Amino acid sequence: MKPSTLIVAVGLAATAVGLSAGAGLAQGPSGVIAQRADLMRRQAGDLGVVHNYVLGKATKAKAEAAAADLTNTTRKIPTVFPEGSGGTSPGGKFGTFATKPEIWSDWQGFLAAQKNAVQKAFALEAVVKTGNKKKIGAAFADLLKNGCTGCHTKFREQIKK
Ligand code: HEC
Fold first, then answer.
1. Helices (H), strands (E): how many in the chain?
2. In Å, how far from its chain's centre is CA 78?
3. Pocket of ligand 1 (CB under 6 A)
4. How confident is the model at residue 5 (pLDDT cuts 50, 70, 90)?
5. What is the atom index within ligand 1 of the atom nearest the CA of 23?
6. Considering the entire predicted model, what is its pTM?
7. What are the DSSP E strand ranges found in the chain?
């Protein structure tokens, strides 16, 4: 793929994954369901910042902070999926998502998908520090497609678009 093609592909994917970012949780359920929607949306926001840096629309310092945050949030994922907390998120104007029961029936598989995302976030964090935008684009795409979407296709259900 040419770098320009990659950026466009990544941009589209970032928009898709970022759609729910920022949607208000004010009237949503409190507790762990809201916490995990918050965490997930925050991750989408962080990816957006890194993406903007690649496009020249955000500073390197901001991208570094966002990438470091992604390493932390992906590490925290298991803490917002305690047993018995399955359910549908409050949803935003761009979609409503729910947990699949496989998260708990295949907890080891879920943890494997989570660790995979941590590794890819950590790799992105390292490459953002170098400022090499071609490599950042590749690490970004890898995290998004294989880390985030890798888990979503198995363990996340879309209730409403
Ligand atoms: C180990 C599994 C896993 C990983 C890794 C993961 N997610 Fe999720 N994500 C889920 C599940 C399950 C849901 C559905 C529950 C929910 O929406 O509250 C979800 C929901 C979401 C939502 C919708 C939140 C809402 O309810 O409005 C967004 C946005 C999201 N994830 C972004 C990301 C991004 C960006 C990454 C990668 C940096 C990521 N996720 C990594 C499991 C994962």
1. 7, 2
2. 14
3. 17, 20, 36-37, 40-41, 43-44, 47, 70, 74, 77, 89, 92, 97, 99, 110, 113-114, 117, 143, 147-148, 151-152, 155-156
4. low
5. 27
6. 0.86
7. 96-99, 156-160
Tokens standing for residue 148? 């985030």
Q: What is the pLDDT of residue 112?
A: 98
Residue 28 class from Cβ within 10 Å (0-12 exposed, 13-18 middle, 19+ buried)? middle
Cα distances from 106 to residues 85, 87, 109, 140, 154, in angstroms, run: 15, 17, 5, 27, 10
Q: Within its chain, how far is the Cα of 4 from the centroid?
A: 23
The CATH number of residue 134's host domain is 1.20.120.10
CA 14 to chain centre: 9
Q: Which residue, chain included where needed, has tokens 């296709």? A: 153
How many whole angstroms from 17 Cα to the centroid of ligand 1?
A: 9
Number of domains present in the structure of the chain: 1
What domain range is 54 assigned to? Answer: 3-11+32-160
pLDDT > 80? residue 87? yes
